[in-house]
Amino acid sequence: MEDQRTTRLDAAPDRSGAAPGPAGPAADAGGLRTRLIVPVLAFGGILMAVMQTVVVPMLPELPAQTGSSRSTVSWMLTATLLTGAVLNPVLGRAGDMYGKRPVLIGSLAAMTVGSALCAVTSDIRILIAARALQGSAAAVVPLATSILRDVLPSRRIGSAVALMSSTVGIGAALGLPLASVVLERADWHVLFWVTTGLGLLGVAASWWVVPASPVRSPGRFDVLGAVLLATGLVGILLALSKGADWGWTSPPVLGLSVGGLLVLAVWGWQQLRCRVPLVDVRLAARRTVLLPHIAALLTGFAFYANWLSTAQLVQAPEGTGYGLGASAVVASLCLVPGGLTMVVLSPVSARISAARGARWTLLLGTLVISGAYVVRIFTSGHLLTITLGATMCSVGTGLVYSALPTLILDAVPLEQTAAATGLNVLMRTIGQSLCSTAVAAVLTQVTMDYDGTEMPTLHAYQIAFALASAAALGAALVTLGLPRPPRRTLAAR
C-alpha cells in the first residue's frame, strides 16, 4: 500500500505549483482557478452548514403549512442528521478510493436536488425525503479537507484547513438570519429556491475549480461494513433524537439503542477481519487518532449548546424575568459575530498550530469554550453580554475545529485522510446529538408557568451552560493525553 501511494505522489505534478488532475486547474498554474481552490471549497462547507440550519426558524410554522403534527415535522431535522452521520465515513472512504472530487461534487449536487424538491412541494413526506438527501452534504468538509492536503503546497495547508474547519460555524451563523429575514418577507418555499441557487453555484464552481486528487487508496469497497455501520448509527442516533418524544424507557428507544450498539460491535469485529476495511479500526484506536475523536465528540456537545440555547434565551418573553422578547431575526443576529470571528481567527489558529502544535491550539480552544460558558452563566440578562458570550464560544470553537483535522491529518496516511476526517466529523455529530437531547431535557423539565404555558427558567439555561462548560473541560483533559509533538512548523513536515 505504501509503495502504491508513493508511486502516485511521485507521478503527480509539482506540489509547489498548481494542483494536479485532468479535471482541475493543472494547466492554470498560478492562475485564477488555482487561487480559487480554497475559497470554493470553503464556500461548499458554508453551504453545507447553511442547509442544516435554515430549516430551524420555520419549524414552528410548518405543522400548519404542511398539515402535519409537530413531531412529524421534526423529522426534517432528524432525517438530515441521520443521513449526514451515516454518509460521512462512507463517502469519505469512497472519496479515498474513487476520487474525492467526484464524490464532493456529487454530495453538493444531492444537497441541491434536495433543496429544489423542498422548494416545489408542501408534502411532508417529500420534504423529509428531500432533507434526508441534503444530509449527504455533511461529507463536504472532510472531503474538502483531504483535497487540500493532497493538492496544496505544505506551507498553505495549515491556514486552508483552519478556514475549512471554520465554515461550520460561519454557515450556521449566516443560515439562521438568512432564513429569518426571508421568512419575514416571503413564503418559506422562497427560502429553498434561494438555497437551490446557492447550491447550483457551489456545484458549478467546484466542477470548474476543484482539481482531481492524485492520492487514491486502491481496493474493493467494503459494502458489508458500510451497511453495518449505517444500521448501527441509525439505531443509536434515532434513539437519541426521538427519546424525548417516544419516552426513554419505551420499547422502541431501548430496542434501537441496544440493537444499534450490538450492530456496531459486530461492525468492529468485521472491520478487524476485513482486508480493506471501511474504517481502519486499529489505526483509529491509536492514541494520536482516538483522543482527537473523543475531543471532537465533547466539543461537538459544547459547540451545539451555544446554538440551541442562545436564540431561545433572547426570544423568551420579558415577563419571564430574564427574557428579552426579541424577534427571531434579532436572536439569530446574536450569533453572526461569532461566525465572522471564526473567519478572522482561522489564519491565527493556523499560525498557533504551526508555532506551538495543534495540540496546544486544541487545548487553548477547549479552555476558551469552557470559560465562555462559565461567564454566560452569570451574564444572561443583557443582549450585549449574551452576544459577547456566544462570540467567545465561537472563538474557542474556531480554534478547536481548526486543530482537530490537523491532528488527524498528522496521524493518518495520505490515502486514508478523507475517511479519517469523516469519522472525526461523525464524532462531532454524535456530540451534537447528545447535546440536543440533554439541552432539550433540561429546558423541558426545569420550567415555570407563564400565562398558562410551560417556559424554561433561567436556571434551566444555566444548567445547559454548565453542562457545555463541563464537556469542553473534559475535551481539554483529553487533549492533555496527546503526545507532545516535536517543535516544528507545518511547513517543515
How would you describe this structure to a colleague?
Helix 8 (140-151) runs antiparallel to helix 9 and helix 9 runs antiparallel to helix 18. The chain is mostly helical and 493 residues long. The protein has 20 helices and two strands. It is globular and about 65 Å long. Helices cover 75% and strands 2% of the residues. The relative contact order is 0.13.
Short description:
The protein is an all-alpha fold. It contains 20 helices and two strands.
Structural class of the helices, strands and pairings?
mainly alpha
Rg, Cα atoms, Å: 22 Å
What percentage of residues falls in helices of 4 or more residues?
A: over 70%
| Average pLDDT rating | 83
Shape: globular
Order of helices and strands: HHHHHHHHHHHHHHHHHHHEEH
Query: How many helices does DSSP assign?
Result: 20
Q: How many DSSP E strands?
A: 2
